[in-house]
Design brief:
Elements: E1 8-14, E2 19-28, E3 35-45, H1 47-51, H2 58-79, H3 90-99, H4 106-117, E4 124-130, H5 134-151, E5 154-159, H6 160-166, E6 179-181, E7 189-194, E8 199-206, E9 209-215, H7 221-231, H8 239-247, H9 279-292, H10 297-326, E10 330-334, H11 341-348, E11 354-357, H12 360-363, H13 367-376
Parallel strand pairs: 1-4, 4-5, 7-10, 10-11
Antiparallel strand pairs: 1-2, 2-3, 3-6, 7-8, 8-9
The structure holds 5'-O-[(R)-(carboxyoxy)(hydroxy)phosphoryl]adenosine and zinc ion.
Residues 160, 164, 195, 335-336, 365 line the site of zinc ion.
Length: 396
């Protein structure tokens, strides 16, 4: 990163799934001395809109990102210093309207907002280009390159999973307005990335030097929480609800309630590789729930606890193996599932490792993590008119 103590301002955009995120942050100095300041940060969750479908409905998500982005942009512009936008050339306007053509009134809304509020002085616009849902990624990409073109700035394409990984370097105290240093860590490190679509172990030899050393062969950990949680009658996304229910499965004396009938497999826990598999767990859980239907409240709680324990045990065991295999003494953890308290507590028990887990506020999808990953990739910025694509299967 060629920041050389000079503060660089980045507007970051996240639209890979069902959270619309927009954040303005500044960064100075190269890692490991990186200091960041969040100047404005907005997030609009679509969770309630998708709940009736029991999962994310891509075309609805795309429409909602298109509606949310102008609202969030307007909020951000009210929070930071801006400058009026001079006349936009006919060519630029034509290009932007072409990019935003498929997103209903997005172009009209964008021009209205920037003429009303102006824009901040920026050095780059960063955007998630994958992995994620292709139609929703495109909304972010098209608005990001429109803003970059309007501002004559560069565009930084960001891998969503790198955002989850780098968020592990953010301090727990991270808050808007203050300047924070990202944690300096020793390499090699291992990163455990656990989200709704991914479960991965990454060997990290330096910032932007990644090698995938383990991944799920079928469902992701978050998906297992969500799918089995749904069978327990919990709303989408079920992960946090499973965790809440699991916490109720204890006696007044604080002892864990267990039920042998509900014991679930720990898939691939003894395999001699670092891969995961959660679909068998889901099938076994479905069979047990069906066999015992209807479950009492106590049984649902005990079942949720067993599910949480099965998933967490596998994640912690494979992570421990990854640390041993790589000889790494640093562990980075990120992704929505990293908000799980049982997982956090058990990861803290791994001996001789320096643990850097995403602050709870950055565990789920958000634009701050995209801004942080962009700061690390500042030198890879491109011209906004470069032909880039959404890549739903982009890998680290
Ligand atoms: O990273 P994320 O916000 O979105 C993706 O990139 O997929 O992760 C969402 C996933 C969902 O599966 C959700 O159920 C899970 O994270 N999750 C949790 C918890 N909070 C969110 N899973 C278990 N326990 C939690 N506390
Ligand atoms: Zn995510």
């Amino acid at each position: 990163m060629n920041v050389n103590n000079e503060e660089k301002f980045i507007l970051a955009i996240e639209t890979s799934c069902d959270e619309t995120g927009l954040c303005l942050l500044s960064v100075n100095r190269k890692y490991p001395d990186t200091e960041i300041t969040i100047h404005a940060n907005e997030l609009a969750s679509q969770i309630e809109d998708h709940q009736e479908y029991g999962g994310v409905f891509p075309s609805l998500a795309k429409r909602l990102h298109g509606e949310n982005l102008p609202v969030l942009l307007e909020k951000i512009l009210q929070e930071v210093d801006t400058q009026p936008i001079e006349m936009v050339s006919a060519e630029k306007e034509e290009q932007i309207r072409l990019w935003l053509d498929r997103h209903d009134e997005l172009a009209d809304n964008l021009f209205r907002i920037i003429h009303e509020h102006g824009l901040p002085q920026l050095d780059a616009v960063a955007v998630t280009v994958g992995p994620g849902l292709e139609p929703t990624l495109w909304v972010g990409i098209n608005i990001a390159r429109s803003l970059a073109l309007l501002l004559d700035t560069e565009l930084i394409p960001v891998n969503h999973m790198e955002g989850h990984l780098i968020s592990g370097l953010a301090p727990d105290s991270i808050s808007d307005g203050d300047t924070h240093q990202l944690s300096p860590i020793a390499f090699p490190a291992v990163a455990l990335l656990v989200s709704g679509g991914h479960t991965e172990l990454i060997r990290v030899d330096g910032i932007c030097q990644y090698e995938k050393i383990g991944q799920t062969r079928d469902d992701a950990a978050g998906e297992a929480f969500d799918k089995v949680g749904r069978l327990l009658g919990l709303p989408y996304p079920a992960g946090p609800y499973v965790s809440e229910l699991a916490a109720q499965a204890q006696t007044d004396q604080g002892e864990k309630m267990k039920d042998e009938e509900f014991s679930l497999p720990r898939p691939m826990i003894d395999s001699d590789n670092l891969d995961f598999s959660f679909s068998g767990l889901k099938t076994a859980a479905a069979r047990k729930i069906e066999a015992q239907n209807p479950l009492s409240d106590r049984e649902r709680a005990v079942f949720a606890r067993e599910l949480e324990e099965a998933i967490v045990e596998v994640l912690v065991s494979k992570t421990t193996q990854a640390l041993a295999k790589t000889g790494a003494e640093t562990l980075l953890v990120g992704g929505g599932v990293s908000a799980n308290k049982t997982l956090r507590t058990q990861l803290e028990c791994i001996k001789d490792v320096s643990l850097h887990i995403s602050p709870l506020t950055l565990a789920g999808d958000n634009a701050v993590m995209i801004g942080l990953a962009a700061a690390m990739n500042y030198d890879s910025s491109i011209d906004p008119e470069t032909d880039i694509s959404a890549n739903s299967r982009l890998s680290l």
